[in-house]
Amino acid sequence: MPRPAEWSREAVRALARTNRRVFTAGDLQRLLEELQKANTIPETISARRFTEVMQVEAGLREEEVPSVADTGEKPGPYRAFRRYVIGTASSEELAVSLRPRSYLSHGSALHAHGITEVQKDAVYVNQEQRPKLPARGMLTQQAIDRAFSNRARESRYVFENGGTRLVLLAGKHTGNHRVIELPHDGSDIALPVTDLPRTLVDVTVRPTYAGGPGVVLDAYRHAVSKADPHALVVDLVNTLETLGHVYPYHQAIGFYLEMAGLRSVHLNALQDRGIHYDFYLCNRIETPAYNPNWRVHVPQELMKA
After folding, report:
1. N or C terminus of the chain with fewer C-beta within 10 Å?
2. Residues 168 and 120 in one domain
3. How much is the pTM?
4. Cα dist. 9→20, 27, 35, 57, 87 in Å?
5. In this predicted model, what pLDDT tens digit does every residue of 131-183 receive, in sequence order?
6. Domain limit, last residue, from 54, 89, 124
């Protein structure tokens, strides 16, 4: 069998050219096959041998990403992931690598867009479900009241990396709508992340994945300070139409934008969608206040924020 010294140097360079710090076994297999096609590595070298040599020559190491139970205890209820890492990889790059076609979302997307009020004790990464038939039946006030009187659903598919929770979400199918790539601290590659309008809609729908309504309001204020008001509202309305949520989240979005300083003339596109129900900014509001303009119940403290 050829000695590693005859091919490992080129293999190390090829690994470095990816600019990645996290690899799956499949990633390493594909890199090996590319190098073998280029006659850089002999075809007799197996994936196992290639990985062993890269561990010695490139500092590649295998790491376990364990599941975490609801109580925070380990081992958790799910099988651990195993990844190969070079150097110090960010929790975001690691989280995105755990499942194919995943992207940073919710609070992690807010942070990627420069909204630093979000705590970084968790990374939220979404892998969309397969397409489903649209829900049937008419929306009623009773159904809304019942749904928002319960606790918000939260993913239990949670893993851990260096004290950071990696929360794996299974969102509705959108075809990765409005997912872009952005540079990210701790990664040498751009990572997939929802753009700002999509992120604002997502955290409106699931504020628990962003730190709560107060953080969501900060995100809207950030967006209003950076974007053209008309363009921002158009993007938000278009995103809502594409995502097709059943509940009237446009009322919550209208409230946030109004609190963020947008004038009513900019909010007509949201008002035109109709204000037919009393709605809620989040689940189980302990001390609610009521905004009659958008017919939305909100935490009392948010009215003073």
Report:
1. N
2. yes
3. 0.94
4. 18, 19, 12, 8, 18
5. 887 777 789 999 999 999 999 999 999 999 999 999 999 999 999 999 999 99
6. 89
